[in-house]
Amino acid sequence: MAFRMKAVRSILPKVPTEFVTFIFVIFIMPTIYCFELFVVIPTFYPLWSLWYTIHFLCGTFLMCNITSNFVAIICTDTSVKGLVLQSTLQPKWHFCSVCESVSPPRSWHCDTCNTCIIRRDHHCMFTGCCIGHYNYRYFLAFTIHLLIATVYATYFNGYFMWDRINFEAPMTLLKIIFPLAMVAFGIDVSETQLYLVLFLVTIMGMLFMVTLLIVHINLIWHGTTTYEKNHKIRDYDFGWKQNFKDVIGENWILACIFPFAQLKLKGDGIHWNTRDSWQLEASKSR
């Protein structure tokens, strides 16, 4: 698979709400990384001891994969722009009235990106771009590594915060439930309150990643996209093993370790075999 890069001007989100979430994500990831490795972990192990070094390397490995896959998602062009497509309608192809061109099977127009996306799954508000054929595996790897990192951090944060929260204080419950509101109103801007905010952001991130991963593993397992699942289209389900290879590539282990490894996907995202055509070819070959 060729790595199709976007133009620099098209990387940043164009919708104000998406731009805010985009800035939040690129700010909060290094903040929590530094919080875990330079505030939380040193309370359990002496700085640069053997166990601290192990946790430092593990955390840095996860951070590198999270940020690299995040960059790959937003920099990979998964649209039909620049592609030479046929001008006549074929089975499963459709005409996009906005782009004024014929679009391949499984490709749909995104109003936010203002173009048709190859094997479009959804528009991601955190990256400000669509998830499609060319960047789906980066999105999946980003989600998996972020889930591992938030579970990892939550485990240590739980012990770290337990010794710092006074559960007998009358405002404790309110601080836990509404930490950001408490900071905004200036009731508590202490160091502990800041730690609590980061702790709860990590927990919310973990729960969100669990939900996201369950949804997308289910989609990939059945060989569908969000649109196809909603419209009960099951034409591209070739079994869970092949379905995952179609998204990640043959060597999924390499994809999880090296975000920018050039892994060849089965198809080009434009021409798709269906279950019916595959079964027909299989019966002819017998």
UniProtKB/TrEMBL annotation:
Transmembrane segments: 20-45, 51-75, 138-157, 169-187, 194-221
GO molecular function list: protein-cysteine S-palmitoyltransferase activity
Statement: the UniProt record of this protein carries the keyword Flavoprotein: no
Signal peptide range in chain numbering: none
Reaction catalysed by this enzyme: L-cysteinyl-[protein] + hexadecanoyl-CoA = S-hexadecanoyl-L-cysteinyl-[protein] + CoA
GO cellular component: membrane
Span of domain Palmitoyltransferase DHHC: 92-231
Cell inner membrane found in the keyword field: no
Compartments (UniProt record): Membrane
Alphabetically ordered keywords of this record: Acyltransferase, Membrane, Transferase, Transmembrane, Transmembrane helix
Enzyme class: transferase
Entry EC no(s): 2.3.1.225
InterPro entries: Palmitoyltrfase_DHHC, PFA4/ZDH16/20/ERF2-like
Membrane topology reported for the UniProt record: Multi-pass membrane protein
Domain of life: Eukaryota
Family to which this protein belongs: Belongs to the DHHC palmitoyltransferase family.
Protein name per its UniProtKB record: Palmitoyltransferase
